[in-house]
Specification:
Layout (H helix, E strand, L loop, with lengths): L1 H15 L3 E4 L6 E4 L3 E5 L9 E6 L1 E4 L4 E7 L2 E7 L11 E6 L4 E5 L1 E4 L1
Antiparallel strand pairs: 1-2, 1-10, 2-3, 3-4, 5-6, 6-7, 7-8, 8-9
């Protein structure tokens, strides 16, 4: 029962809160994660002003975090944020997988927008 309540709270917290802005260490991937969408921004634009694409995502939530899966630029992007209340460069990451199976994992730096 406790897990169910915590999962419900995590979903409620994510959907009711502001979106989350994330980037990879060299800022070559910048995106905003909201409840149903992931919006990608122009590379190296630290202020995230120029939107490249906004795509609908599939979501899977755990106790305090979320995993989003989107198709963008013919690649599968899996965005994992372990804890929406306490971001971590160690536990938050993005996996980018090409159609040929090549896979790259980057740590993420995130903040509430």
């Amino acid at each position: 029962m406790k897990t169910l309540v915590m999962t419900f709270f995590a979903l409620l917290t994510f959907t009711a809160s502001a979106s989350v802005l994330c980037h990879t260490p060299r800022m070559n991937k910048i995106f905003e994660v909201s409840d149903k969408r992931v919006t990608f921004f122009n590379e190296f634009d630290s202020k995230a002003k120029r939107e490249l694409a906004s795509v609908v995502s599939r979501s899977k939530s755990n106790d305090m975090g979320v995993t989003k899966v989107v198709e963008f630029e013919n690649q599968k992007h899996t965005i994992h944020i372990a804890n929406m209340n306490s971001f971590s460069d160690v536990n938050d990451y993005i996996i980018i997988r090409s159609r040929s199976g090549h896979e790259v994992t980057y740590p993420l730096s995130c903040e509430k927008k």
